[in-house]
Amino acid sequence: MATTDTTTPPRGLVALPATAARALVAIGAVATIASTFMSWTYTSDFPGDLTYYGSPAGLQILDLVAGVLTLLFALTLFGVRGLGWLNPATAIQPVLLAATSAFAVSWFSAIAIAVDLKGLVALDPGAYIAAVGSAIALVGALALPKPGDTFKDYVTKPDNIPPAAKLPAWGQRLVITAATALALIVFAYGVGVDPDASETFLGYILLVVFGTWSLFTAGLFDRFAQLNAGHKGFATSMAFLAAALFPFVENNEHNSNLGVNILVVATVALGLNIVVGLTGLLDLGYVAFLGVGAYAAALVSGSEFSRFSGVQFPFWAAMLTGMLASLVFGVLIGAPTLRLRGDYLAIVTLGFGEIFRITVNNLDGTSGPNLTNGPNGISMIPDLNIFGFNFGSNHDIGGFSLGRFANYFLLMLLITAIVVLVFTRAADSRIGRSWIAIREDETAATAMGINGFRVKLIAFALGASLAGLAGTVSAHVGYSVNPAPYQFAGSVPPNSAFLLAAVVLGGMGTVNGPILGATLLYMLPEKLSFLKEYQLLAFGVALVLLMRFRPEGIIANRRRQLEFHESDDTVHIPEQGLPDSTVGVTKAGA
Amino acid sequence: MTTTTAPSPVLEATGVTMRFGGLTAVRNVDLTVNAGEIVGLIGPNGAGKTTFFNCLTGLYVPTEGKVAYKGTVLPPKPHLVTDAGIARTFQNIRLFANMTVLENVLVGRHTRTKEGLWSAILRGPGFRKAEAASRERAMELLEFIGLAHKADHLSRNLPYGEQRKLEIARAMASEPGLLLLDEPTAGMNPQETRATEDLVFAIRDRGIAVLVIEHDMRFIFNLSDRVACLVQGEKLVEGTSEVVQGDERVIAAYLGEPFEGAPEDTAAAAVEAAEAHATEGDDQ
Ligand SMILES: Nc1ncnc2c1ncn2[C@@H]1O[C@H](COP(=O)(O)OP(=O)(O)OP(=O)(O)O)[C@@H](O)[C@H]1O
Ligand SMILES: [Mg+2]
User: Fold this and answer.
1) Atom 25 in ligand 1: which residue has the minimum CA distance?
2) What is the pLDDT of residue A7?
3) Same-domain status, A201 and A271
């Protein structure tokens, strides 16, 4: 890092008086905001059509948000009344990160326009103002007093964030509601980005990453987590309500379809999290259980391509069939392998996943008995009809017309809610504690009276049946089932590597983690079509980076939260328990 | 339970032998622990004390011999041994690092609670009651060992001495009739060691027999009703503290030599040891 000023410690990287620095950030932010109301390019060829004056579109909207965020954080440095909550520690980090988000979005847009449309001539004045304005804001932010000596200090949450002022209960609920609504809007905006407008989606990613990061360093996420912890039931209901509103907000079939698929993979990832995250068992063939459930449901769906085409179970019975089939397979795979330690399970499940796909491919009447219709799969699965509610047709609810995928979205959301409930309740109970104990130290766990085999088998079978449950819905959503997607690794999402990555990336052992991880991993290749071919490579790179910089995943489980919590109320740093004389006394041994 | 009025044995290990390939870590050891007794197990490093514990608790399947708890022979399965009523701690602390202090103790209650997956998901009144009772019992145990104020801390964040105590509480949560402690004061300072001494007496007063491995001689001879000395896998002597302390073979094999790695040589009351230490220092 090249510092222009090293004599006086509280100076920034750029030598300027603090007041001037603050003013620069604010001016730059205002310029950025203003620029989004101008034309950025003269032709409508660029995705989003950024040619209008007075009405921001596409990347301009994102830049507008980034500019407003920067301005708000800059104003907190001026001590503007009413904004203190946004930056309780009046820290520099959120300002810098917000300015970085504006800078990143502006410059990315300008460069993308120039590259897409062959040259700088394509840029209108608005784009120049955005670029210069955001650069001024960033320079201003860098001129603010340094929070520390290293680069890391600029991007980590400071320790001295004061505790939040106590809000009345209704106020807390209001904050939770507002934050959830905001999350819904952000998510819906991302889903709503035109798949052809990769540029807009990349801008969205830049904004979301730097924006949430700046809110995180301001300490707002911790406060939100605390509020949530105080109103668990309310917060969960709000989250599901927001999710249920998604098909209304994003009222078109394509995006509802995307929503259902995300829910399916998120739910399956959550089921896998019981096995991997809670119990610590590596299951490399988990997607096969989704396949078992989907095939079971397809076989009893009444499709004319089903081996039992005359049979049409009501949906509840089909769900139970799918779960039961997966459960049986789970027990069959688990029983012989879970007695062994270590990596046998990983190898056996990997094998099982492949065997499932190959067997399904071959049960076509020529290579083997006819059961699954081979590679052609079972198609024309009829739509569900529950209590006369036909999932295949449009329904008008409160002025909104919900299409087929929106119907399934709501059904799938119900399934997700069930899985979340099962997960949270099981995790916080005798059985859940024994899973975690096994994960932490299997020897000690068995010495505490836990029957390791039994408990692991329960986790494995539960995980399998939850995947089977999700599979029954996904069979109906997709009109057909075929063996192709149920593989270990591939370019289309429901595959075992994808699910595992979703769990690890999102955060093992948490509820939100795998849901977030699955959402991210599903959306990114969907919206960034140029990524599709490199999806596996991108996965690999992302996982390596993650393991290096944040091994606990995006959402850390209670471990991290507890550490915050502990530093809040008790200071026990000088341990009288470990005087010098005890060093080196511990011995190894069983 | 036996009907005789004589001391009723809680633990009867007979002819326990453990071989690892050519190495016989434990050779034909008999040991009895009676109700209400504190029995010490001493011996030099590598004598096979921990291995013997592992044989008692089913972590190792003894090559020969059998282990009986209150008259019934135990199958060599750790969870069944714990279920029967023998609980243990580990020489190298094995807590569930990423669980809270309270959760660690709750895991210890596993064998004394029955709620399965279904009742966890359905959360009926029975489940809530059992869970509340478990928590109450666990908190009571934390109170007993003096860690109640840290119930919500992660066990990994506890200082060493408290981790050892927590292991004891976790073991006691399974309501054992016999508690096996593997070097409970290793790594502790003198005050903590003394506190642990009191703790072991308090545990005995709760009606739990204790079998304890320790290198701290003052600790072990203060505490134990009987002491057994293991050397190279064989039981050399067994008797009261005085008998074992005075036994020439024990002194030759174990006590006589300056015991390296013993936690507090300086604090140990074994005067000879202190003197030996001092003269050693003078010589160099
Ligand atoms: N699983 C095993 N495989 C092979 N050898 C083992 C195994 N466990 C223990 N041993 C050997 O058995 C012997 C006894 O070890 P043990 O750990 O029981 O000694 P100890 O009396 O507990 O010693 P310390 O006082 O150092 O704890 C040692 O030589 C050890 O190397
Ligand atoms: Mg040992």
Assistant:
1) B45
2) 44
3) no
